[in-house]
Specification:
Elements: H1 2-7, H2 11-25, E1 41-47, H3 54-62, E2 69-75, H4 82-90, E3 96-100, H5 110-121, E4 126-130, E5 134-136, H6 140-151, E6 155-159, E7 161-162, H7 167-170, H8 175-183, H9 186-191, E8 204-208, H10 209-214, H11 227-237, E9 242-246, E10 251-253, H12 259-270, H13 278-292, H14 294-302, H15 305-324, H16 335-355, E11 357-360, E12 363-366
Parallel strand pairs: 1-2, 1-4, 2-3, 6-9, 7-10
Antiparallel strand pairs: 4-8, 5-10, 6-8, 11-12
């Protein structure tokens, strides 16, 4: 019986091998010396009550060394003076346009509606959708455009380096990188046509404009909570080229500032990320408990080195993905606690599904 139980942890080996493979193959951005071409890029940012964050974002965008771009901020009914803050930072720089958003119509989610409106103002050959809390190294845009041109990407998506300070952030936010790097071979994302091998990060989506229009733009994903993944599926489904990379510090963001924000933010997305299936979310929760928590319980209760090895393999894999994505490797030691916190988030998401709605930035989201 013990041998069969050990075999049930075999998925840990596959997860570890995928992480090792991605450690060598997942593209990372590096500053470049010279651009071969400079197509006009429209940087499109939805903004709702971001006065505390948008100042640094605008400053970093206008400091880009790329010569041919515009920044369009779509002020989505902000109540904290976000638009005025952004315009004050720009000091009349004509590359920045702040547009006032129209009221949210039925059948749209707020962010998708704001991005759609921003795209209507864009003049670029490339459309770069980002968030108001992402900060840009001066060479980030040049490097991103060079990567898109080199790979001939119709959609290039990039994972910003996540800043995590409080324990709630440190134990949960890096799991986004863990999920991508340990579960999804990037070579399959790039070279296999199957939609199951899709991934995208909404904090940085660089579209070739014709590809964005071909798949229907934000109109096609207007009700999708996880619109970035919907775009990735659509690009693959249309036979277009999807490419992914890691920002490697050139883009940085702090998504949340405390456990409550982490819990509410992930609870908004986690069920949608599991195909809106409660069964799939429950299966995922049990699966992660089995792989990353149960081995430690068995190792301690039975004083078994075999189960301890399984636990250590999970920790080492989480640690490897942390190193790749510029996170704290030592936080991997608390992987079982991370699983517990994600279970709390899953329970909250399921409760929201049962009551039929959740809320984000003062707006209800139908579930």
């Amino acid at each position: 019986m013990s041998d069969w139980l050990i075999l049930s942890f075999f998925p840990l080996v596959i997860i570890a091998l995928v992480a090792v493979l991605n450690a060598f193959t997942f593209p990372r951005l590096h500053p470049i010396d010279k651009l071969q071409a400079t197509p006009f890029v429209s940087i499109l940012i939805p903004m709702r009550n971001e006065s505390l964050r948008v100042r640094e974002t605008v400053r970093s965008l206008l400091a880009q060394d790329y010569p041919n771009f515009e920044v369009i901020l779509l002020d989505d009914q902000s109540e904290d003076g976000s638009a005025a803050v952004a315009q004050a930072v720009a000091e009349g720089d004509l590359r920045l346009k702040v547009c006032s958003g129209a009221p949210l119509p039925n059948g749209w989610l707020g962010k998708n509606w704001a991005c759609h409106q921003a795209a209507q103002h864009a003049q670029g050959d490339y459309l770069l959708f980002s968030d108001a809390d992402v900060r840009w190294h001066p060479q980030a845009l040049s490097t991103l455009v060079a990567e898109a041109l080199c790979t001939k990407a119709d959609l290039l998506t990039c994972w910003p380096t996540q800043e995590t300070i409080t324990w709630g952030e440190r134990l949960t936010v890096p799991l986004m990188a863990f999920t991508i790097l340990a579960y999804l071979p990037v070579l399959a994302v790039h070279y296999l046509p199957f939609r199951v091998f899709s991934a995208a990060m909404g904090q940085c989506l660089l579209f070739r404009r014709k590809a964005y229009e071909q798949i229907g733009g934000h109109v096609a994903v207007r009700q999708r909570v996880v619109e970035d993944m919907a775009f990735a599926y659509a690009i693959k489904g249309a036979g277009l080229r999807l490419r992914a990379c890691d920002a490697n510090g050139l883009l940085q963001t702090r998504m949340y500032v405390n456990w409550q924000e982490v819990r509410d933010g992930f609870a908004k997305n986690i069920l949608a990320g599991h195909g809106n299936s409660i069964f799939l979310l429950l299966f995922s929760t049990v699966f992660h408990w089995w792989l990353f928590v149960i081995p430690w319980i068995l190792a301690i209760s039975q004083l078994s080195w075999k189960y301890a090895i399984c636990g250590v393999l999970g920790v080492l894999t989480r640690s490897l993905t942390a190193v790749i994505s510029r996170q704290r490797a030592r936080d991997a030691l608390l992987l079982p606690l991370s699983v517990i916190l994600m279970t709390i988030i899953a329970v909250q998401s399921i409760r929201q599904r049962w009551r039929g709605w959740s809320e984000w930035k003062g707006r209800p989201i139908a579930t």
